[in-house]
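Homework help board

Subject: predicted structure for assignment chain

Our instructor gave us this sequence and asked us to write out the predicted structure in token form, then describe one feature. I got the tokens but I'm not sure how to describe them. Can anyone check?
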Amino acid sequence: MTTRSGSEALPATAGPARSRRRRRGSLTHPARTGILLVAPAVLLVALFALVPLVFAVYISLTNWPLIGEYRFVGLDNYRLALQDPGMFKAVRYTLIYTLIVTVPILVLGYGLAVLVRRRRRGSTLLRTIFFVPYVVGLTTLSYMLVLEAQPDSGVINRVLKALGITDGTTAWLVDGPLATILLCLLVIWTVPGLTMILLMSAMQGVPSEVYEAAEIDGATWWQREWRITIPIIRPSIAIALIISVIGSLLAFNQFYILTRGGPGTDTMTMVGYIYNRAFVELQLGSATAMSLLLVIVVAAVTGAQFLLLREKD
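My token output:
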């Protein structure tokens, strides 16, 4: 009987070690392959997000006009923005507008999702009808509403006059509260289609056996929705709510088209105020500082929503 010495046994283990070294150094190793795959995305993010963000921070520290020379002013733009009563008025109006439209959008979107979530005759047509306003877009619908809200000639006044509600001469777009009502109704009609799609997709992923078991136990429709559907699709509800709130905080197109922030500044949103500061008053440094403050506000609101709506373990 012979035995192998330690020096003779070494090549038996050296082979796997060399193989592992080769795998670590090969192009197909997961770490290197992963870096190569994500490199283009990282490059695009750096080029189109990080670099502009750094440049925006620099601009916010100057008195950069849209035309002409500039100089470094430090944090003066931020200090002046936080002391600007016009900015605070725009922030207050935007928050009020967000509070008004958020709940109706979520409730209507949920109701529409319940209506079309089952595969029955006509459900596809209804989904299309409900989603069309969102596809058409707020910009197009806002231009249409400009025509339909005109005194004496618009369809809105004609319908209200036929119903005996008004005399048919209401100037919707030159009155702050009336314009706000019209804008809110436009958004509440347009946006729930997106919420419907998000929630409907989540609802269709709930196992039917869960509903059948609850029905056998005597649960009512409302109990099944409240105790089964809503808890299961809670992440989708959170996403829909966050998208709606961010969209409201950044609202601009419909306000610019319909009222230009008027009459006066009664319907001026945060983005509209920043737009005027940059492209009407030509103070790009100040506007950029306000934009970064707006980013902080949106991030704070979004973070608060994540904390409140996150799925509990």
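Reply (TA_rk): Your tokens look well-formed. For the description, you could write something like this. The first helix runs from residue 6 to 25. That's the kind of observation they're looking for.
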